[in-house]
Amino acid sequence: MKTVLMSGSSSGIGQAIREKLENESYRVYGISRNNGEIICDLTDTKTLHVEIKKLLKTTDINLLINCAGVGIFKPHEEISLEKINELIDVNLKAPIILINLTLRSLKKTKGHIINISSIEATKHSKFSALYTATKSGLRDFSLCLFEELRRAEVRVTNINPDITKTAFFDKLNFEPTDDKKTYIEPDVIAQSVLQAINSEVVITDITIRAQKFAIKKR
Question: I want to staple 121 with a disulfide (CB 3.0 to 4.6 A). Which of 74, 77, 135, 200 is the partner?
């Protein structure tokens, strides 16, 4: 049985990915503040380090998925320093740290790293500067890391989903519309993860778009 270490597995895209992998007989260790196999706040670097090292003493990792993410979309001067730190810590710093901690294990298993970025990593949107910075940073990190790890035969895949119908928007001032052509379902992202895992070649970057663009303001 192959082992997966995953952040963001308790809801939305991450939950859909987890269910898909478990149906394929993967053993998933989820990192969560409340109800994961590894109880840890991703912004708590010291505890994260301790918990991952503890897991690696008894378990080799075949697949690392960085799916946890937070967003904020407003004029930059209105964003609190606390929120700035949170976005950088969760969206960019945590994935980089998790890869750092698990890479020796992934090299041993000739494993796979999958980072869930965002469509915002590929374009420039109003009120998205901070979020885009974290997600484009993650995307570029992924693409550079692939070049570093090719000889070690560790795969690296970055996925850029368009607006996806999840609880991500619950605390934002906009959300997907009711038109199914303007958003993606989480299961579509999960299927793309399986596609990348099962591909005979390395899929380094996947962008998944809705047919139309529209949002509904609250």
Answer: 135
